[in-house]
Every structure is written in structure tokens, then in C-alpha cells.
Amino acid sequence: QLQASGGGLVQAGGSLRLSCAASGSIFSIADMGWYRQAPGKQRELVATITRGSITNYAESVKGRFTVSRDNAKNTVVLEMNSLEPEDTAIYYCNGDITSVSRATTLYWGQGTQVTVSS
């Protein structure tokens, strides 16, 4: 399972740090990522990171957001700076998790609300 935390209310221009921790009988985790869904919109990619820390960002967050991970702790972090009202959404983490039984499943966290006021 994945557990996300760190959302909240912040003023435009502010910063937030989202964390996501995987738990359970984990053998390894391949790609991890963050997605978001604003009211009335489809879920969209924010950032992804491979096990080797190769990153990919949505154009709208490049230069403002940074994704990182700790493979030893099975965690992924999204540092968000220069936040804009348009960043308001529920943020979800996900991960391709291989269990000790060698079954691979894409898991999603429960979502954490980020609200940016103008």
C-alpha cells in the first residue's frame, strides 16, 4: 500500500512537501510518481521517477516542483515551490510495486489535498 501525506493550504508563491511511503511485503519498486486531479478535470501526470532516479515532469510544473525518492525507505517526495492557484488539486502518488512473491502491481495512494490561495 501507499500512504501519502503533506498536503494543506498555502498562499500563492508558497511551498509544500508531499511524501508517500510504501508498506507491505515489498521486493522492489520500479517507477513511482505523482498525479493530480483538480475539480472537474481528469487526473494528470505531475512527475515520475524511475528506480534509478530519472525524472519526468509535466511542463506546467517544470522548474517549480522536484521529485525524489529513497529506495531504502520505499518513499517518494514531491517538493513544490512557487505554488500557483492552478496547482490546487488532490495529489496522488503511485508506484509499480513487486511483492516478495514477485507479483507486480500498480498501487495508488489515497490522495492528499493541496489548496493554493491567491
| Unreliable segments of 5+ consecutive residues | none
* Total DSSP helices: 0
Q: Per DSSP, what share of the residues sits in E-state strands of 2 or more residues?
A: over 45%
Please give the largest β-sheet. Answer: 7 strands, mixed
Rg calculated over all Cα atoms: 14 Å
SSE inventory with pairings:
Elements: E1 2-5, E2 8-11, E3 16-22, E4 26-37, E5 44-49, E6 55-57, E7 65-70, E8 75-80, E9 89-99, E10 104-108, E11 112-117
Parallel strand pairs: 2-11
Antiparallel strand pairs: 1-3, 3-8, 4-5, 4-9, 5-6, 7-8, 9-10, 9-11
Looking at this protein, list some descriptive labels:
118 residues; 7-stranded mixed beta sheet
What does this molecule look like?
By secondary structure, the chain is an all-beta fold. The chain has no helices and eleven strands. Strands 2, 4, 5, 6, 9, 10 and 11 form a seven-stranded mixed sheet that branches. The termini are far apart. The mean pLDDT is 97.
Could you provide a short overview of the structure?
This protein is mainly β. It contains no helices and 11 strands.
